[in-house]
Design a protein that fits this description.
The complex is a heterodimer. Chain A is mainly alpha-helical. Chain A is built from 21 helices and 14 strands. In chain A, 40% of the residues lie in helices and 7% in strands. Helix content of chain B is 8%, strand content 44%. Chain B is built from twelve helices and 51 strands. By secondary structure, chain B is mainly beta. In chain B, strand 8 and strand 9 form a beta hairpin. The chains are: A mainly alpha, B mainly beta.
């Protein structure tokens, strides 16, 4: 009987065995499915891993590829530093990127997406630097020298990202390497001034880094870059006496990561040309690259919207960041002295083509004397636009009625560089290999001038200013007319494109004018030299004159026809700092109490 | 644990085997059960010895064998759809053919539910049984879309795109992420999207824990159980079902847009009202339209504003070839205006063919079908072409051993557009009417002239995808074996799964006609494959002891997932020749490639007990223990129990006298289910990545090369567990009025705890992806109702009508992370949706427009509001602070309907039949985001609405349909989400109307045919709605739906002819 059962249930027995087999398959091992194709912490804790993490921390300098957005987290700070100051209008159609409008009129809400993107990107950068430090401590194959180098660079970057946060948002929490998700201690309050910590990071970097960039990499922070950033922090804190020795050292001994002594390049525009980047004037810059296998993600994507809008031009997008009437006017020079006109520059607008179509006749006013830096900073009708051709005005502008007549230049590539120093693999051709200069040597010289003014050493101040003006006055560095307007890439003639007239100040000029006038002239020189480089707003706040200057600016621009600023007011005590993202404040709550406090006025 | 369970089971079985040896001395009786009219074998009929606890079921051939104890002489045969029959044995061992008469009540129907099958009347859980025939009244390539309005408790939002996406919510929105129910096809997890609806035999939706929690961590979103057709023993049949139809785009001017002259007039008005005019003349300045008192349409738009005879329009200057120098396009103005909607949407054909064969013998059965479905979308270059084949077989190896397989294979080409953000339909209202489709030489025209905006030519965009392909092929199915043993036991093993391959490539052109052109051409080719297997083993025991009926099921299941993805791209192709569209023909300098891999596993035990006392007190319990690899070590295993009870009141003695009640059942259930759909496979791990764009950096300043960089890409979580869903259900089922009216009403409450969502932290943690953690709770409750009325009027008129009503109320109960909310539904002007505590999922949030500022006086006496001016929106000062700011934003709309309803009427009169299907949604709002583009002049230079030109605010039009026509973008108009965009999106659609004629049997028989039916059909005959966009039915992401970006309409009329024939 038993035998019979056995054969009858043969299949059943087979199935039953399979059943048991399955029960074992269902054990713990079956559920062990680790991720494939990514690294785990153990893979990173060695020299190569830590150095790679450090590169990853550098890679966020461009504001791209991290937690935040794209052009809304640009390294150039074109929105906060530029559009929110008297440098530039938003540009484009009035409704394009509406969140910039409210920033530009200092009326943004705490939910502004640009403020969020910048905030997220900077803290992502901070934590990438911190992660480098954390994993560095787990690595067993690092020499003390390696540790010094890596921690120096990591802390430099951490200092930089905090600096960005500090100048945009004012009250910000400082996040060191002990703050992690796992530890649950990330609700850091913003109730203490973080300048001392920023200083400490730069000081550490300055003390521990070598003069030459590690492994000869020109993009690395070296000792002098750290020193310049520390000096910049002191400038923001108005600690002129602390800053001056550093600035003096930088002028006397400073050198780039490539080991070249700091100096001003002969031609002003070499600072804004991808082919001549990382020159002796580049103290520290965001390194941008193209055609590198990243589909333009490492290009200067932050400024990708900031080009002209003529479909026949090589770069035809998207018409943002249009220089203001006031900025163009600032470059007027006194026809007798060749000095700028800091108090009267805005009395009348330079002749422009606002309201004119490209086929309407227009000739620029050649009787007026101008600082040659104007036409490397502001694209205007009738002037050669790099090697693209004579600027046709209206056609280069996306929406003249809502943005004004001017076009940005400093971030623009040459037509002859398209494809080689630009990247065409994305949706628009404006991905360039131009670096974003975070500090260039002219910056250092003008800080030195500021310090000297505050120390009432006006001759020295004038000396530094004149270094910058003399370079600008180099006729070889002017914009010249084309040999043949019909063939803009056929080269330039020796004829300047406009009536350029600029002079260094005559000996003793600052002293005769007095400290206040000298201060004004130094600040105005910064405006001219560094216009459209994302510094202006922060400088105005630093000077404490933002309300006066910007409210006057609003009045002027509206009169000139820029309606988007109508009704805008810079409220002193509020608008110096931008709104901390509301979602960040909300999520910082512990036991019903918010650890982050909003800036006043929002 | 596993070993212990096994050992117990072995012991159990051994005891049973021994016990069975003493039950052998009786008479075996066989028979074959057939339907009385069709003579088709009746499978799964229950054959019971009257008065004894001895019963069996017929096999697929209708054959049964039962051992009749001595002294018994009558068998009771019962099966769904037929009247109960008593057959005297009379000492015979073979009863021959037994014929059953069909009955009108479906209560004895066997319904396939979780891992088992039950009689409909014995079900204690909540199961929506779909009438597959009614469902097929909707012509669609996807059964998901057909399911709309056919199952109570199931809300379906779908789109008109061929093979487009569908939101399926079983009992409300149960998650912020994936809410798709689990689809079980012939016992194996699969999909409904690409099934051939003609292969479907039955479809059930398991809605509550009593029914679905046997699926444990996969059950929370509901379970849809699909059984495909199998062959029946007896005569072979061949069927052919086909239809052909034409779909018609929405007629007229569905976006209510301006023509060329009107748009120019609007420009003039905007510039004048904004003061953006020439200071001398006081008139607008335009390259295209001149500088006069009235805009004058130019003859050419590129070069801008040119007129006939201008030297600039000399065709010799024309060039659109980058290799030949600068682009110089010459495009004539379309002075009448291009109707971009009708350039993009064209009438399109649709056809479906299914040929199936089925049959079998007592030893084996087969079902084989071939399907071809081809729907050309009305939107250019959208289509779904699908070929499918299905083979189901069963072999009766021994009397007690059955093996079989189910196999389904499909291959499709189904290019998709972007549905839930700005897409090609968006270009329809952004491309100005003055732009023609083609320029003077027949190349595409576009926005590359002054003042033409920055849209893309939608026709060009679509036609350029012509050579792109998006292929998918999928093999899906299982093999299974079943052994009956020891009378009461059945063991079943099933091994099944899928291998799914996707393959696509697309070429992008170096465009010349747009304001913002692609920088170069490019080509991308990608492939992916997804696979999983499921190995399920179950053991069933069923027995009857007197009045006690017991059924026990135990099982194990192992599921493993694995998939890979590969993509590569190159740019700078020197020619656009389609024959050179391969990666290697592109520039290696711009080459990119990537691949990734995922894997996951699930292992489970489950069990179920069904107990019935006296056939009227029902009790069921299920439990499942799941282990899932994506969860952290601390939360890997979950246990999901459920209990349900039922009381067949109508069988009680006191109900016998109530003659109008034929059937009445009260039931209730409670249980837990889970979901792990929203946790990525590697969620538990902290990971680092290297990404060219995200961590590589040109540290050496080369401008063209990168140094390797890493970044912390993900933070792991060991404490993340499944989403847990506790659901309580009460229901009442009744059949009344002489079996004419079936009613079912259910109420449920569903508490979903620990919704999986990326942890909410602030940015201080860094950029690494936060792990998904259990952070939110949602509460759903609602009513499901269905009613079916069937009646015969006279001899020939048969009526059947069904009403399905679904209502749910999804409310967010908690979102930790302090803010108590997260925002989504992103647009150019920010997020329209805030998911917040105390509010429905996907609720619309923003400033509330209470009117328009009348004049300066109104502005000055109203609360302070940025950019306030006459003709702009006046927002509600919700907190009465005297100023409008962030805290004045409110929840102003809800895309969740109060209820949705489906109505189906069938009538047959003699050989004619008619079906009409309605579907409606009531009480849902939509955000008509298309109005951002068309109702504000300053939102880009696209086309604008009639409302903006003719019914916008002026000092004399104080109750307008749009704010003042001006060239300014402000907080008080179009830069922030506000309630201006909200519209009621309730609708009532006539989804289908069918009139058919079946040829009389006699002449067909002569032709050798069994059945021949022709029909004509109209779909979407009408839609009644107040919504002003294309279609109020707006699908989307789960946490943000109901936003109209210009969705592919699902209300386009279409007409069909169809045939169904059988041999």
């Amino acid at each position: 009987m038993k035998k019979g059962i056995k054969s009858k249930y043969g299949l059943f027995i087979i199935l039953f065995v399979a059943f048991i087999g399955l029960l074992y398959a269902c054990g713990k091992k079956f559920l062990d499915r680790p991720p494939v194709g990514v690294y785990q912490p153990s893979t990173m804790a060695n020299k190569a891993g830590v150095e790679g993490l450090l590169i990853g921390a550098y890679s966020l300098l461009d504001g791209q590829g991290g937690a935040g957005g794209s052009w809304d987290a640009a390294a150039s700070n074109w929105v906060w530093g530029g559009v929110c100051s008297d440098d530039a209008h938003k540009g484009s159609d009035p409704g394009d990127q509406p969140d910039i409008v409210s920033l530009m009129t200092w009326s943004e809400s705490a939910t502004n997406s640009y403020n969020l993107a910048k905030w997220q990107t900077c803290y992502d950068g901070v934590q990438r630097a911190n992660e480098t430090l954390r994993i560095m401590r787990l690595a067993k194959d690092l020499t003390p020298a390696d540790t010094m180098q890596i921690s120096g660079e990591a802390r430099f970057l951490r200092g930089h990202y905090h600096f960005e946060l500090k100048k945009v948002y004012g009250r910000v929490p400082y996040v060191d390497e002990t703050i992690t998700y796992e530890a649950g201690n990330w609700r850091v309050p913003n109730d203490v001034d973080i300048w001392p910590k920023i200083e400490a990071d730069f000081l550490y970097a300055m003390t521990n880094l070598q003069a030459k960039g590690y492994q000869g990499s020109v993009g690395r922070a070296n000792k002098y870059a750290a020193e310049a950033f520390l000096a910049k922090a002191y400038m923001f804190e108005h600690k002129y006496t602390d800053a001056m020795p550093l600035l003096s050292d930088l002028v006397a001994n400073g050198q780039t990561a490539a080991g070249v002594k700091y100096g001003l390049v002969d031609k002003f525009n070499d600072n804004f040309n991808a082919a001549t980047k990382n020159n002796k004037e580049s103290v520290f810059a965001v390194q941008n690259s193209v055609n590198d296998g990243s589909t333009a993600a490492n290009a200067n994507a932050g400024d990708v919207l900031n080009f002209s809008y003529d479909p026949s031009a090589p770069v035809s997008c998207c018409g943002f960041y249009q220089p203001s009437f006031s900025l163009a006017n600032s470059f007027k020079t006194d026809p007798v002295t060749g000095y700028p006109m800091p108090t009267t520059f805005n009395n009348t607008d330079i002749k422009n083509d606002q309201g004119l179509k490209s086929d309407d006749a227009f000739t620029p006013d050649n009787t007026i004397t101008l600082d040659p830096r104007l036409d490397w900073t502001v694209g205007r009708r009738g002037i050669p636009f790099l090697d693209w051709g004579v600027n046709p005005g209206y056609l280069y502008v996306r929406n003249q009625a809502s943005g004004g007549p001017y076009t940005p230049i400093k971030n623009a590539p040459y037509a002859s560089q398209i494809g080689a120093l630009t990247d065409k693999s994305s949706w628009t051709a404006g991905y360039t290999a131009l670096n974003v200069n975070l500090i260039r040597f002219a910056d250092v010289l003008l800080w030195a001038a500021e310090c000297k003014v505050e120390a009432n050493d006006l001759d020295s101040a004038q000396y530094f200013v004149n270094l910058v003006r003399s370079r600008a006055a180099n006729p070889a560095g002017f914009v010249h007319k084309y040999i043949d307007d019909a063939n803009p890439q056929g080269g330039f003639s020796n004829t300047p494109a406009a009536n350029y007239f600029i002079k260094p100040y005559a000996a003793g000029y600052f002293t005769t004018q007095g400290q206040d006038a000298a201060r004004t002239l130094v600040r105005f020189e910064r405006k001219l030299e560094l216009a459209m480089e994302g510094h202006r707003f922060f400088d105005l706040v630093r000077y404490g004159t933002a309300d006066v200057e910007l409210n006057a600016y609003v009045k002027h621009e509206v009169t000139s026809g820029y309606n988007l600023l109508k009704g805008a007011t810079f409220v002193k005590g509020k608008a110096e700092y931008f709104a901390i993202p509301q979602s960040e404040i909300d999520v910082s709550t512990i036991n019903g109490k918010k650890t982050l406090t909003q800036n006043p006025g929002y | 644990m596993p070993f212990k369970t096994t050992r117990m089971r072995i012991v159990c079985c051994v005891i049973s085997i021994l016990a069975s040896t003493c039950l052998l001395a009786q008479q075996a009786v066989t028979g074959k059960i057939l339907g009385k009219t069709d003579k088709i074998p009746v499978a799964f009929a229950t054959v019971q010895v009257k008065g004894k606890n001895v019963a069996t079921q017929t096999n697929a051939d209708g054959v049964f064998t039962i051992t009749v104890p001595s002294g018994s002489s009558v068998l009771v045969i019962s099966v769904v759809g037929y009247d109960k029959l008593e057959v005297p044995v009379g000492g015979r061992s073979n009863l021959g053919e037994i014929l059953l008469t069909t009955n009108t009540s479906s209560l004895n129907e066997i319904v396939v539910t979780g891992y088992t099958a039950q009689k409909k009347k014995d079900i204690t859980g909540s199961v929506a049984i779909v009438n597959v025939k009614d469902m097929k009244a909707i012509p669609s390539g996807s059964p998901e879309q057909m399911l709309q309005g056919q199952a109570s408790g199931v809300t379906i939002i779908t789109s008109g795109a061929p093979g487009g996406p569908t939101n399926v919510f079983v009992r409300g929105v149960t998650s912020f992420g994936n809410t798709d129910p689990l689809y079980i096809v012939d016992g194996v997890p699969g999909g409904l999207h690409d099934l051939n609806s003609n292969d479907i035999e039955s479809l059930q939706v398991l809605k509550d824990a009593g029914a679905a929690s046997i699926y444990g961590v996969r059950g929370s979103n509901g379970v849809v159980v699909i059984t495909t057709k199998r062959g029946k023993a007896g005569r072979s049949t061949i069927s052919y079902d086909a239809y052909y139809g034409t779909q018609r785009p929405l007629p007229g001017n569905p976006f209510h847009l301006l023509n060329s002259q009107e748009l120019a007039n609007a420009l003039w008005k905007a510039d004048i009202q904004s003061g953006q005019v020439d200071t001398l003349t006081g008139l607008p300045v335009s390259t295209q339209y001149g500088k006069g008192a009235q805009p004058v349409l130019p003859d050419y738009i590129t070069p801008g504003g040119a007129h006939e005879g201008d030297p600039s329009v000399n065709p010799a200057l024309y060039n659109v070839d980058y290799s030949k120098g600068a682009i110089y396009q010459i495009t004539k103005a379309n002075k009448q205006g291009t109707n971009w909607f009708h350039e993009l949407f064209r009438p399109a054909p649709i056809q479906s063919h299914t040929l199936s064969m089925s049959g079998g013998s007592e030893k084996s059965t087969y079902y084989f079908s071939l399907g071809y479905f081809n729907q050309q979308g009305t939107l250019l270059e959208t289509y779904l072409k699908r070929y499918s084949a299905k083979i189901n077989t069963t072999f009766n190896v021994k009397k007690n051993i059955r093996v079989g397989e189910n196999a389904y294979w499909w291959f499709k080409n189904n290019p998709q557009i972007d549905y839930f953000s700005e897409n090609v339909i968006n270009y329809d209202y952004r491309e100005q009417p003055i732009i023609p489709v083609y320029d003077i030489k027949g190349n595409f025209a576009g926005t590359n002239g002054p003042e033409l905006g920055n849209s893309l030519n939608p026709v060009a965009t679509q036609l350029r995808t012509h050579n792109n392909r998006g292929y998918n092929w999928d093999m899906f199915g299982n093999v299974w074996g079943e052994v009956d043993f020891l009378k009461h036991f059945m063991i079943r093993t099933s091994f099944g799964g899928t291998v799914d391959n996707g393959y696509n490539y697309q070429y992008s052109y170096h465009t010349y006609e747009d304001a913002e052109n692609n920088g170069s051409n490019g080509f991308t080719e990608s492939a992916n494959y997804n696979s999983y297997y499921t190995w399920t083993n179950t053991l069933t025991y069923s027995n009857t002891f007197g009045k006690h009926n017991v059924k026990v099921l135990g099982g194990t299941e192992a599921i493993r997932y694995y998939g890979r993805f590969l993509t590569g791209s190159r740019i700078n192709y020197f020619t656009d020749d389609p024959s050179l569209q391969v990666l290697s023909a592109g520039d290696p300098k711009g080459a990119t490639n990537a691949s990734f891999v995922y894997q996951a596993a699930l292992s489970s035990y489950f069990g179920r007990v069904d107990y019935a006392y006296n056939d009227r007190y029902l009790f069921a319990a299920t439990v499942r223990r799941d282990g899932a690899s994506p969860f952290g070590t601390d939360r890997k295993y979950g246990v999901f129990p459920a209990f349900s009870v039922g009381w067949l009141i109508s069988d009680e003695d006191f109900m016998r006298s109530v003659s109008w009640v034929n059937y009445l059942k009260l039931r209730g259930s409670w249980g837990k289910m889970g979901s792990y759909a929203n946790v990525p496979p590697a969620n538990a791990y902290t990971l680092y990545s290297a990404g060219a764009g995200s961590s590589y950096y040109d540290i050496n300043g080369t401008s063209t090369s990168l140094a390797l960089g890493f970044y912390n890409s993900q933070i792991g979580s060991n404490v993340t567990g499944w989403e847990e869903d506790k659901i309580t259900n009460v229901g009442i089922d009744a059949v009344i009025l002489n079996n004419k009216l079936d009613l079912s009403l259910e109420y449920y409450q569903k508490n979903i705890n620990g919704l999986l969502f990326p942890d909410q932290t602030n940015a201080l943690v860094g950029g690494a992806a936060r792990p998904n953690v259990n952070i939110g709770n949602v509460k759903n409750n609602g009513l499901d109702f269905s009613a079916t009325y069937h009646a015969m009027i006279g001899r020939d008129l048969k009526l059947n009508s069904t009403l399905i009503l679904t209502s749910y109320n999804s409310q967010v109960v908690s979102i930790p992370g302090a803010g108590g909310y997260f925002e989504t539904g992103g647009t150019r002007i920010g997020n329209f949706v805030r998911n917040a505590v105390g509010h429905p999922i996907s609720a619309f949030y923003g400033y509330k427009v209470i009117g328009y500022f009348k004049d300066d006086n109104d502005v000055s006496k109203s609360p302070t509001q940025a950019d306030a001016a006459p003709g702009r929106f006046k927002y509600a000062d919700v907190n009465n602070s005297g100023a409008i700011n962030d805290s004045d934003r409110v929840f102003y709309g809800n895309p969740n309907p109060k209820f949705t309803y489906g109505l189906t009427f069938n009538a047959t009169y003699k050989n004619f039949d008619a079906t009409i299907v309605f579907y409606g949604s009531y009480g849902n709002d939509a955000v008509n985001y298309t109005r951002y583009w068309t109702d504000f002049w300053a939102s880009f230079q696209g086309n604008k609405s009639k409302n903006l030109l003719y019914d916008s605010w002026t000092p004399t039009n104080l109750n307008p349909k749009a704010p003042i026509l001006e060239n300014a973008s402000t907080f008080s108009t179009n830069t922030v989400p506000n309630s201006f965009y909200k519209e009621s999106a309730s609708f009532f659609k006539c989804r289908s109307l069918i009139i058919g004629y079946t040829l009389p049997e006699a002449p067909l028989k002569r032709l050798g045919m069994d059945r021949l039916r022709f029909y004509v059909q109209a779909a979407n005959l009408f839609t009644i709605t107040k919504y002003t966009g294309l279609d109020p039915e707006l699908s989307g992401n789960t946490s943000a739906f109901g936003i109209d970006f210009g969705n592919y309409p699902n209300n386009q009329r279409s007409y069909y002819v169809g045939v169904s024939l059988g041999f």
